[in-house]
Automatic annotation (TrEMBL):
E.C. code: 6.3.2.-
Positions of UDP-N-acetyl-alpha-D-muramoyl-L-alanyl-D-glutamate binding: 54, 181-182, 208, 216
PANTHER family: MUR LIGASE FAMILY MEMBER (PTHR23135), UDP-N-ACETYLMURAMOYL-L-ALANYL-D-GLUTAMATE--2,6-DIAMINOPIMELATE LIGASE MURE HOMOLOG, CHLOROPLASTIC (PTHR23135:SF4)
Organism: Actinomyces slackii
Annotated metabolic or biological route of this protein: Cell wall biogenesis; peptidoglycan biosynthesis
MF (Gene Ontology): acid-amino acid ligase activity; ATP binding; magnesium ion binding
Positions bearing N6-carboxylysine: 248
Main localization category: cytoplasm
Protein name: UDP-N-acetylmuramyl-tripeptide synthetase
Residue span(s) of domain Mur ligase N-terminal catalytic: 48-94
Segments forming domain Mur ligase central: 137-342
Taxonomic placement: Bacteria, Bacillati, Actinomycetota, Actinomycetes, Actinomycetales
């Protein structure tokens, strides 16, 4: 994500945050003044906020200078002080740098500064999560989808819900692009405080494993934590799957959450549920034998409405007929998880079921741009950008496609080159018509990326029938896909989902598939 997103995230702050004495903050996070003069500062100073980023400091706030993977944050202390920081929280190495670069600035010491940022941020923003119904979803896949389902349900129940995840940071009507899946603790606490200030009663969060390990969620009171699944990913950060699971498992401890709902469809979920240190509901979303408190039967994809219907059974004999508007059986796991989490958060079942059924248009996640109506075809934007996700996405839309399945796709530059022919192979195998285009070529020659994809296509379809290559611009390819789409056909454009930029030749170009596809739909069929 580019710098603009970080700047926008910084704008989501409460309008009035009563200042907190530095002494109280030091006590809350067991901070030690670096010098006797710094101890005196505790008596006189009050803080109005906190940041780990010097570029994000407002006058009166504290700068937490963290030892980073690349640099020591204390290197930026002078910049923070110039912006109005009243004190710096750091380790002893950082204190040395501050003494050199901005002498006289009060310094509070912590042996692991990253670990105190959460509690400090919660304290300075007055523990807003304690007053909100807060949910957090973790797992390799399905976090975004499940958290949007929860957003819809909690909004229906409480009037509004705050959202912090991969796609957006939203409080009330204000939404900004999200810099990452789970933002730094000060950004999150500010958003929660703003939500409280604006009368928003709930928060739906995504919890990445990076965030859990890097303490971004510390001191956030989560009412219900949810776990979707664990698949191979991020083994550069967590060295083994066991370590990856243990990172997620931290969310299911009383330090973070009051209760949990865990999908036990894979063995990792079963292990997590068995080892969890908080009360946990076990949910089985797919057919299987694993013991569970809640389980799903009759999962079906409906052709007419592109909806998925299922029955959710509960521990007290509940039998809940539910539906979600996203196709694909993976979304049954996400939908059932959202339902059980909502029920455990106190949402009446009827309210939850109705809101889930209406949870349309998650940005870039099987997002329907036009519905099949006898004249128009079904037009969808989806984020699938790996061979596995592409396989799932195409398998999800095939049953709701009486005619041809058209896929518009490309592959990233400066990333995993091996997946390019694999994507071509999957699409050639599972779709009828292929329109090959660019995704984010970045510094690479887009023609070479497309050639690698086409090599994979050729391995399945040597004659290259029903394969088109669009060499001009991604928007033209999306338009071509829609042009080819008949009333019984489906066109799915994959790879970029919600992304607001296309990265090419060192530039971030404003581009989003959804409005481009909507324009193509209007050009072909007129306004609905
Ligand atoms: C690996 C990782 O998570 N790194 C995080 C880490 O960065 P770092 O230690 O490398 O920071 P650094 O560049 O050494 O800088 C040290 C400190 O100086 C500060 N600084 C730096 C520059 C400056 O001008 N002013 C300033 O104050 C930085 O905010 C930082 O606190 O600490 C920074 C803030 O303290 C985070 O912004 C940064 O996240 C980076 C951007 C990141 O890309 N993280 C990814 C891996 C991530 O968290 N991903 C997960 C989910 C992934 C997924 O599910 O796909 C996510 O939640 O998004
Ligand atoms: N429950 C699930 N199980 C397996 N795959 C899923 C599941 N839910 C979604 N997917 C697949 O993963 C893709 C990403 O879904 P989603 O954005 O909801 O997950 P995520 O955990 O937020 O991932 P990311 O952090 O990459 O956005 C979807 O396009 C879909 O193909």
């Amino acid at each position: 994500m580019n710098n603009q997103a970080y700047e926008s995230a910084a704008s989501l702050r409460p309008k009035h945050n009563p200042p907190v004495p530095l002494g109280a903050l030091a006590q809350a996070a067991s901070l030690v003044p670096a010098t006797p003069q710094d101890a005196a500062a505790l008596e006189s100073l009050q803080a109005t906020g906190l940041s780990v980023d010097s570029g994000d400091i407002l006058p009166g706030e504290i700068f937490a200078a963290l030892p980073g993977f690349n640099a020591h944050g204390a290197r930026y202390a002078a910049q923070a002080v110039q912006a109005g920081a009243i004190a710096v929280v750091t380790d002893s190495q950082g204190a040395g740098i501050v003494a050199e670069t901005c002498p006289g600035t009060p310094v509070l010491l912590a042996s692991d500064p990253r670990a105190v940022v959460g509690p400090l941020a919660a304290e300075v923003y007055h523990h807003p999560s304690r007053h909100l119904v807060t949910t957090a979803v973790t797992g390799t896949n399905g976090k975004t989808t499940t958290s949007y389902f929860l957003d819809a349900i909690l909004s229906a129940h409480l009037g509004a819900c705050m959202m912090a995840g991969t796609i957006e940071l939203r409080v009330g009507r204000r939404s900004v692009e999200s810099p990452r899946t789970t933002v730094e603790a000060p950004v999150l606490q500010r958003m929660l405080a703003l939500a409280l200030e604006e009368g928003v009663g709930a928060a739906s969060l995504e919890a990445s494993s990076h965030a859990i390990v890097l303490h971004r969620l510390d001191a956030t009171s989560i009412d219900i934590a949810g776990f979707t699944n664990l698949q191979r990913d991020h083994l550069d950060f967590h060295s083994t799957m066991e370590e990856y699971l243990q990172a997620k498992a931290q969310l299911f401890t009383p330090e973070h959450s009051s209760r949990g709902v865990v999908c036990v469809d894979d063995r990792w979920g079963a292990q997590l549920a068995a080892e969890a240190a908080i009360p946990v509901d076990r949910l089985r979303a797919y057919p299987g034998q694993t013991p569970a408190d809640w389980w799903v039967t009759d999962a079906t994809v409906s052709l007419e409405e592109a909806a998925t219907t299922f029955t959710l059974h509960g521990p007290d004999g509940e039998e809940i007929a539910a539906s979600c508007p996203l196709p694909g059986l993976v979304n049954v796991q996400n939908a059932a998880l959202a339902l059980v989490m909502a029920i455990r958060a106190g949402v009446p079942t009827d309210t939850a079921v109705t809101a889930l059924a209406g949870a349309h248009n998650i940005p870039g996640r099987m997002q329907r741009i036009s519905q099949r109506d006898g004249r128009r075809g079904l037009c969808i934007v989806d984020f699938a950008h790996t061979p596995d996700a592409m396989e799932l996405a195409l398998a999800a839309v095939r049953p709701i496609t009486p005619g041809r399945l058209i896929v518009v796709f490309g592959s990233d530059g400066d990333r995993d080159q091996g997946k390019r022919p694999m994507l071509g192979e999957v699409c050639a195998r599972l779709a009828d018509v292929l329109v090959v285009t660019d995704e984010n070529p970045r510094s690479e020659d887009p023609g070479l990326i497309r050639a690698a994809i086409l090599e994979g296509v050729r391995s399945v379809r040597p004659g290259m029938e029903n394969v088109e290559e669009i060499t001009t611009w991604r928007g033209d390819a999306v338009e071509r896909g829609v042009e080819l789409c008949g009333p019984d056909d489906t066109v799915i454009v994959t790879g970029k989902g919600h992304e607001p930029f296309l990265e090419a030749a060192g530039e971030f170009i404003r581009y989003n598939d959804a409005p481009v596809m909507a324009q193509a739909v209007e050009k072909k069929w007129g306004r609905p």
